[in-house]
Amino acid sequence: MIRAVAGGPMLVDGSRKGKILCTRSRPAKWTKRTVLTESTGGQRVHDRAVASLNELVATAAGNAHRDDPIAATTGGPAGNARLTAWTGLLLLALFLAETFTLISVGHFITAHILIGAFLIPLVILKTATTGWRIARYYLGTSDYRQGGPPPTALRLLGPLVILTGLAVLGSGLALIALGKSSFTTIVSIAGFQINALTIHQASFAAWLVVMGLHVLARTVPAVKVALGKESVGARVPGGSARGVALAVTLALGVLTSVLVLHFSGGWTNHLLERFHHHHHFGYPPNG
Ligand code: HEM
Predict the structure, then answer these.
(1) How many domains is the chain built from?
(2) Which of 74, 84, 91, 117 is such that its CA lies 20 to 30 A from the CA of 226?
(3) Chain segment 187-227, per-residue pLDDT in tens
(4) Same domain for 17 and 89?
């Protein structure tokens, strides 16, 4: 298990007195339970914050990683981490492509819709693999308990990563379902006219901030885990099942993008009409 502690009087003895500061980020030499005793409340909060920050930085830099047990057949937590890492990296590549279309959605609307729809099954897979780990952890499965939770900041960010991601994709799909009415004002708040398109734009802005932080913290570890650098020499069973899961997800991505594009004709035409009418590139104004 992973232990790291900063500052304050410590006792490394495996006893259960006092508070565990942090249960992850392990430089290999820390193997015992690290317990803090005899410190004031303020000092303890400070120590805990410093330990959390150290753990976060070490994780983001790829210097600390959980000891994920490797189970037979599926690979268990180590297999789960690999599938999550590969899915994350594929998502990252597609996010970059999708962000590129934002340079001029007017021009790249077809690519924007195709990539956005292709993302849906992958985002569901990512939610499923991390959701599985979260559920196993909270249900007390020993393998996943042994791995421990993510660093606190990422643990808190996780649900927002899922919610904002679903909001962007959901509101994007809603635009296609709504067609022309995407531009109809739903409500006016302080002079701002809110319609389905502004909801899509606002959820994108929220998602960008949250995902920016997630990607900053998770890209280096994702590369290391995907390349097997975290379990050097150890075989993690379940590789072909993971490959099949990814291949099926990508095939579903193709299917989703073709279907969504098929239904998006009306919306795209309407957008292009407005786009030419207003003679400017990017989103047309609301109203
Ligand atoms: C909409 C897209 C995504 C969703 C919904 C999502 C969701 C999550 C959630 C809920 C967690 C658990 C909390 C945490 O440990 O931080 C997580 C972990 C992780 N994510 Fe993402 N994520 C997405 C995109 C990405 C991308 C683009 C990357 C690649 C850079 C990535 C790489 C990772 C990694 C490496 C972990 C740690 C997994 C582990 O502990 O084994 N994710 N993700």
Answers:
(1) 2
(2) 117
(3) 888 888 899 999 999 999 999 999 999 999 999 999 999 99
(4) no
